[in-house]
Specification:
Elements: E1 2-6, E2 14-25, H1 29-39, E3 43-46, E4 51-57, H2 59-69, H3 77-89, H4 97-113, H5 123-132
Helix pairs in contact: 2-3, 3-4, 4-5
Length: 142
């Protein structure tokens, strides 16, 4: 996943959070434990709906994992390539709101490929906030 999350303490007030999740019914949580033991990364949580989830969060762990499995991907290959592109370009966003918006657009593409349902933060929301904060001009956002 590539999510745009609100971060009031950040210069641009937003962050692109990258993560990978594996989901199983809690009665099969042992599969997630086996994966976690193999990769030595991630956290497992049991949700209230009898589902357990192993999650890797952060560009370093996501990058490492995607590079390991990329040759074997078929179904999620497009998402993986977009996330790797985001990771590659993340350093360029430190001082450039325009570049950050470009990566937000890639995050939107990942969300669309994953049929994301509950999204409220999109590139358009970030663009409007940047305009309000005078980080970008209206002519730059078109």
């Amino acid at each position: 996943m590539a999510q745009i999350v609100s971060r009031p303490d950040y210069i641009f007030k937003y962050q692109i959070r990258l993560s990978i999740s594996f989901i199983q019914k809690t009665k099969r949580k042992h599969f997630l434990i086996k994966i976690q033991n193999e990769i030595k990364k991630g956290n497992i949580r049991e949700r209230s709906d009898e589902i357990s989830e192993l999650t890797l969060v952060g560009w370093q762990d996501v990058n490492w994992f995607l590079l390991q499995i990329k040759p074997f991907l078929r179904i999620k290959e497009k998402q993986a390539n977009l996330v790797l592109k985001i990771i590659e370009q993340l350093p360029l966003t430190k001082k450039s709101p325009e570049k950050f918006l470009e990566l937000c657009q890639l995050a939107d593409q990942v969300a669309n490929l994953n049929d994301s349902k509950m999204r409220t933060l999109t590139t358009q929301v970030v663009r409007e906030r940047f305009q309000d904060l005078k980080l970008i001009g209206i002519e730059k956002s078109l």
